[in-house]
Amino acid sequence: MAISGIVLAAGAASRMGRNKLLLELEGETLLHRAARRAIEAGLDPVLVVLGHEADQARRALEGLACRPVLNPAHGQGMNTSLSAGVLEVPAASEAAVAILADMPFVEAAMIRAVVERWRETGAPVVASRYGTVVAPPTLYARSLFPLLVGGAGEGRGRQVVRAQGERASFVDWPPEAVTDLDVAEDLERARARVGARSGT
Fold it and tell me: What is the pLDDT of residues 148-177, one digit of tens each?
């Protein structure tokens, strides 16, 4: 059963003051890191939705077996990027996993666990849960794709998860794994965390 990956990486990152996805952690851009882990998790194809500074982002993805998808409407909110990615999922894919490129501590094993839970349960949606926070990686079965397409703004992915109620399944992770990078201090904390983990 083929499962696609949709890496959401189109935003302008205005709070960071520069394109955060081109910043490096452990010698690798955040964008490259997210796409690489989606590939390592076995998702195929991995669709990377780009928008802001798309040319630079494409260069950051060189050498990876992924497919960039341009979202010209990225300024209208993340919903447009999720929609753009879903529309490019091949007909052979039975589901797609949405991943945020600015969550650097989401590892390939976490993505694989979401997929495995779906294979076990057949749930229409499988989301990651970090304590009380529900966030990607989130798997959507093809039956839900129409609910993810169209419109602007933010939060449609979460809305679809909530709307499934008891039909939704969750994989639980430590709360600290939900870290996303919005401002410069977030990146410095992430680098310090990596340094502490490696003993450097």
Answer: 999 899 999 999 999 999 999 999 998 877
Q: Name the residue among 27, 21, 83, 37 with its Cα closest to residue 177.
A: 37
Task: Specify the pLDDT at position 14.
Answer: 57
Domains and CATH numbers, the chain: 2-198 (3.90.550.10)
Torsion of CA 86, 89, 93, 94, to 10 degrees: 10
**Cα–Cα distance measured from residue 136 to residue 110, given in angstroms and rounded to the nearest whole number:** 10
Average pLDDT value for residue range 75-86: 96
Contact 67, 83 (CB under 8 A): no
| C-alpha–C-alpha distance, residues 104 and 157, integer Å | 19
Share the mean pLDDT of the chain.
Answer: 90
**Measured CA distances, 120 to 41, 51, 177, 179 (Å):** 17, 35, 23, 27
Residues 79 and 156: beta-carbon distance below 8 Å? yes
CA distance linking residue 154 with residue 135, whole number of Å? 13
Torsion of CA 187, 129, 168, 123, to 10 degrees: 80
Lowest mean pLDDT among 7-11, 24-28, 82-86, 98-102: 24-28
Give which of 23, 2, 8 is closest to 137, Cα–Cα. Answer: 8
Where residue 48 falls among pLDDT bands split at 50, 70, 90? very high
